[in-house]
Amino acid sequence: MTFINYASREINCKIVYYGPGLCGKTTNLQHIYDATAPQAKGKLISLATETDRTLFFDFMPLELGTVRGFKTRFHLYTVPGQVFYEASRKLILKGVDGVVFVADSQEERMDANIESLYNLEENLRAHGYDLLKIPYVLQLNKRDLPNVIPSEDLAVELQKKGEPVVEAVASTGVGVFDTLKAVAKQVLTELRKS
Amino acid sequence: MPILIREQRYHHIKALLARLRLDASARVVVLVEKDGQQIAAHGEVGALDTTSLASLVAGNVAATGGMAKLIGEKEFPTLSHEGDKESIHISVIGRILLVVVFDQRSSLGLVKLRSKQVSQELAAAFAEIERESAASDKSSLPFSEITDEEIDSLFVQN
């Protein structure tokens, strides 16, 4: 749910990174955090297990700049990818303005991608959202690995509605900001429409 | 439709938070929407990262709300976390969360009492915000006429 505060002249939006376990959701946020100037970002909060797997969520606020006198802030969240954290995953989608689905391009993770995407649709529906109507980007991550499925084939399988598809290597930052930009643009355009 | 917080409502909420802070001898009082967005904060904010606090409080309430449902409760209306020096009390008031951060200058009993006393007024103020947001003329939003160039410029600034 976008918040527009006329007193503090701020617009706050919520973006959630979704996808199967170990697909690179946290790595996306970590790269954004590392590559952003200190004044444009808040803390990166990671609620993770001792083995650095996301337990509940990661969160970071990011200020993009000012438009028409309003500071534009995006609250970036990740969900825990592991299947058994279903209850937590669902909670984090509440009030979402835009979603990034991070797909793992490796051949052996195809089933996990499909399952997670199906799970995203279900959980969005539970909150009254329709994946076909909300701002949405598909990121094909881990393009640097040897056993990846060709992007075209992944897109055929995973693309839902002609959403932007971004190839990425989140560990080195390739495609990370392109993904963020693609979803943020849709969220802001949605405000124009509303 | 976005939630619109007009200046008058914002200042009214800030005044309610200021009164609560004083009455409860609290350090900081923060009002948060259940999805994790901070509505307003008042007090000795200083280095306290209220944006992160808002997001964690919402996560905390969402998780305990999930637990409540598992055992057949609708939700837990209040949550308290007591530390050695600093403590946090959270009241769930419909869609908003009232967060009071306090230290030895106050007590949990006092914070609970004062939070309860102000909760109706806060609920009414937020209900007004929701009503105004729903009734607002969509073309009056600050971004209703935003151009592609302006959106692109956000990404050039960074």
Task: Using brief descriptors, characterize the structure shown.
heterodimer; A: 194 residues; alpha/beta; Rossmann fold; eight-stranded mixed sheet; 8 strands; 28% strand; globular; B: 158 residues; alpha+beta; five-stranded antiparallel sheet; 6 strands; 48% helix
Overview of the molecule:
- The complex is a heterodimer of chains A (194) and B (158).
- Chain A is an alpha/beta fold and 194 residues long.
- Chain A has one domain (3-189): 3-Layer(aba) Sandwich (Rossmann fold), CATH 3.40.50.
- Helices cover 31% and strands 28% of the residues of chain A.
- Chain A has 5 helices and 8 strands; from the N terminus they run ββαβββαβαβαβα.
- In chain A, strands 1, 2, 3, 4, 5, 6, 7 and 8 form an 8-stranded mixed beta sheet that branches.
- In chain A, β1 (3-5) and β2 form a beta hairpin.
- Chain A starts with a strand and ends with a helix.
- The mean pLDDT of chain A is 94.
- In chain B, 48% of the residues lie in helices and 22% in strands.
- Chain B has helices at residues 7-23, 50-70, 108-135, 148-157, and strands at 3-5, 28-33, 38-43, 78-82, 87-93, 96-102.
- In chain B, strands 3-2-6-5-4 form a 5-stranded antiparallel beta sheet, sandwiched between helices.
- Chain A binds chain B through residues 1-8, 11-12, 14, 36-37, 40, 42-43, 45, 47, 56-57, 59, 61, 64-70, 72, 75, 77, 87-88, 91-92, 94-95, 177, 181, 184-185, 188-189, 191-192, 194, and chain B through 1-7, 10-11, 33-37, 39, 49, 51-52, 55-56, 59, 62-63, 66, 138, 141-146, 150-155, 157-158.
- β1 (3-5) of chain A pairs parallel with β1 of chain B, so a sheet runs across the interface.
